[in-house]
């Protein structure tokens, strides 16, 4: 194997290690398949320069988030999935909003855009199409508020059927009336005050 190919393999291995994700998880974060990453890491196929630069950048960003105990998009989705499987909806909400709050802090910190880059990483599914859509909608909204383009994974079509998570004390009419327009456009209905903070 030639020296340049070995260098590319080393850079990709370092990016995977920095991300603190599994190889398959890192592939998903980059929007590619585990088998494709595998061929890059074996030297069987050479990635484009664009792919390599993106892999290095996202690997560093995900690692920086983990080091600072900040949630990235993949970490938020994983935490949500854990609590969804346990049937602990209150904690699903907490993880969702904590992740969103960490994204907002990252976007506000102009001195270190590496943390915000961790939200460009495509998350795994939470196990629920509706919760996936809500996570995407919140992320897209935060990027928009910061005047930045949202990552592709956060740009979703509206749900085909409207979704209104059960509310402890508001009826459907009040939930509908108190849902912000940007969330209604996704066919998701959650009162704005429920999205204030984790």
Structural features, described:
The protein is mainly α and 198 residues long. It has two domains: 3-64, no CATH class; 73-195, no CATH class. It is 59% helix and 0% strand. The protein is built from ten helices and no strands. The longest helix has 20 residues, at 89-108. The termini are far apart. The model has no long low-confidence stretch (mean pLDDT 92).
Distance between the termini: 51 Å
- Number of structurally distinct domains: 2
Largest sheet: none
Number of strands: 0
DSSP helix count?
10
**Mean pLDDT, rounded to whole units?**
92
Query: Topology as H/E string?
Result: HHHHHHHHHH
Relative helix content: 55-70%
Unreliable segments (pLDDT under 50, ≥5 consecutive)? none
Shape: elongated
| Percentage of residues in strands | under 5%
Radius of gyration: 18 Å
The SS-based structural class is mainly alpha
